[in-house]
Hints:
- This protein is α+β, with helices and mostly antiparallel strands.
- The protein has five helices and ten strands; from the N terminus they run βαββαβββαααββββ.
- A hairpin with a 4-residue loop joins β9 (230-232) and β10.
- Residues 211, 213-214, 216, 232, 234-235, 237 line the site of one zinc ion.
- One zinc ion binds at residues 94, 96, 116, 118-119, 121.
Amino acid sequence: MYKIAKIKIESNGQKLEELENIEWLLTMYYRNGQVLENYLIEEYDNYYFVTITITDDDALDSKYNNKYVNDMLKKVKITDISITTNDALTTDSCHCNEYDRFYLIPSLDISSPIYCSKCEREIPLYKLQPFYGDEYTLLLDYIKTYQALYNLYIYGLKDNYTEKEIMNPKSKFNKLGLNICKNYSKILKKDVLLKINNLFYAEDDSDISHCLKCGNELEVNNNPYSIYNKECKKCKIIY
Ligand SMILES: [Zn+2]
Ligand SMILES: [Zn+2]
């Protein structure tokens, strides 16, 4: 579950440098999947209060820090961390001890596009192996690309281009997704399937029976409460 955390940081009066370091620390925490991107910094005479959303109860445990977070922690003097309450607008995340397979799901307002197939909840990124280098930046950028496309479709163009980018597995955006799935499955040593979102899922006539990439007949998911309805085993795509 996402939590709201308050971090108290000592100030020695070097405000400009301190604020820059605090912002870098928060950026490193974000790129390591430990916190969401938005934060508030309250400034007082001898200290700051930073309010942040952390991606799970134990997200700020030092065992999850990478070298970039630790480097910044040498420059920022944290004197107290308190987790105040739940972020009321979020659902719980995955707490499974082991995984079967993973889904890459483009969604809005989330910290991680990687879902667990067992509980079908998002997995805070810091609990998984980094995707590229030591961080998760490419996965976080993937969420942002989807958000940009979705916003362009919903609030702007509603045109064929944005629609296809989201719904056609052969689009540039979904090729990027399939590429992430392929490469991350090598790192995680388990299948990572791509979810193709349907912008018109409420309409019956949009219900597809064959894979939009290879044309094979789709396998139906018998669980009506699942986050997907159909699957192409060959392409490792869920619809
Ligand atoms: Zn799970
Ligand atoms: Zn297929």
